[in-house]
Amino acid sequence: METLVGAELCFPQLINTSCRKQSRPHLEAMLIYILLSSISLLTLALNLLVIISISHFKQLQTPTNLLLLSLAVSDFFVGLFLIFQIMMIDGCWLLGDLMCSLWLVLSSIITSSSIGTMVLISVDRYVAICYPLHYFTKVKPERVQVCVCLCWMFVALIYSVLLKNNLQHPGRYNSCIGECIVDMNYIVNVIDLIVSFIFPITVIVILYTRIFGVVVYQARAMRSHRLFKVTVKKSEMKAARNLGVVVVVFMICICPFYCFALTSQSNVYTSSSVPIVVWFFYFNSCLNPLIYAILYPWFRKSIKVIVTLQILKPGSSRTNVL
C-alpha cells in the first residue's frame, strides 16, 4: 500500500509533503508526450531556420524581416520553454522553487515580447500602406533594431517588477512540494492584461482597420478610373496581406488564454491549471514559421540553401533568395 502511495507522489520519499501526480492511462500519457514533444521540436527547428535565414542572407535584412526575426527569436524560446511545460504533464515540478519562478518570469517576458513585436509589425505595415512615400525615409533597419531592443527591454522591466514577489519568495504559495505556482494580485493582473492584451490588440485592430480602409479605397479607385497613379506598390499590399494572416492567427491563438484570465476569479495560477488555453497560446509559435513557408517564397529558398549546406560556401550570404 505504501509503495502504491509513493508511486502516486511527485517525490515518493516525502510522503507527507509531496504533491500527488495527475493520474492518466499509460497510452494517453504517451500520446500526449509524443504530440507535445513533436510540437516543441518542430517549433525549435522551424524558428531556427527563420533566424538563420534572416541573419545570414543580406538580401533578407529589410526592416520588415528584422521584425520577423525578433518574432522568430521569441518563438524559438517559447519552443525551448515548452520542454519545461511538457515536464509538468503529470502535475509535478521537479526543478525546485527558484527555477519555477525564473521559468514563469522568463516565459512572461518571451510571450509578451512576441505580442510587442506584433504591434511593431502592424505599425510597419501601417506606415508602408498609408504613407508609402515616407516609408523608406522613416523606416530604416537601424531604427527597427532600436525599436525591437526597446520593446524587449520594456517588457523585461515590466515583468521583473510585476513578478518581483515570486522571485523574492520562490515557492511561497506552494501547497506541497512539486508544485509550481505564480501569484498575481488584482493590480498586477490588471496591468498584465492591459500591457499584454488590451492595449496591443486595440492598437493592432485600429491599424489594420486603417490599412483595410486604404486598400478598399484604392480598389474602388481602380474600378472607377481605368488609369490612375498607384501610390501603394503591389509588393507592399502583398506583404500587408501576408503579415495580416500572421497577426490574425496570432490573435486567434492568444485570445482564449486572456479571455480565461479576464473571467477567472483566482489570482493564483499553477503551471498546469489552464493546459488547453496555454498550449493553444504556445502553438502559435509553431504556426508562424509554417505560415512563412506557405506565403514567402524566400523562406522556402532559404531552407533549401541551408539544408543542402550551400550556406557554408564562401559568399553564400549574398545568394539571391528573392
Helix and strand arrangement:
Blueprint: H1 2-7, H2 26-56, H3 63-87, H4 97-130, H5 132-138, H6 141-162, H7 164-168, E1 181-183, H8 186-224, H9 234-263, E2 268-270, H10 275-295, H11 297-307
Antiparallel strand pairs: 1-2
Helix pairs in contact: 2-3, 2-10, 2-11, 3-4, 3-6, 3-10, 4-5, 4-6, 4-8, 4-9, 8-9, 9-10, 10-11
Describe this structure in words.
- With 322 residues, this protein is mainly alpha-helical.
- It has a single domain (2-318), classed as Up-down Bundle (Rhopdopsin 7-helix transmembrane proteins), CATH 1.20.1070.
- The chain is built from eleven helices and two strands.
- It has helices at residues 2-7, 26-56, 63-87, 97-130, 132-138, 141-162, 164-168, 186-224, 234-263, 275-295, 297-307; strands at residues 181-183, 268-270.
- The chain has a two-stranded antiparallel sheet.
- Helix 2 (26-56) crosses helix 10, helix 2 packs across helix 11 and helix 3 runs antiparallel to helix 4.
- It starts with a helix and ends in a 15-residue tail after the last helix.
- The model is unreliable at 1-6 and 226-231 (pLDDT under 50).
Number of helices: 11
Q: How many E strands? A: 2
Average pLDDT rating: 80
Strand content: under 5%
Provide the number of structural domains: 1
| Fraction of residues in helix | over 70%
Secondary-structure element sequence? HHHHHHHEHHEHH
CATH architecture field: Up-down Bundle
> Strand count, sense and closure of the main sheet?
2 strands, antiparallel
Taking Cα atoms only, what radius of gyration do you get, to the nearest Å?
A: 23 Å
Strand order of the largest sheet: 1-2
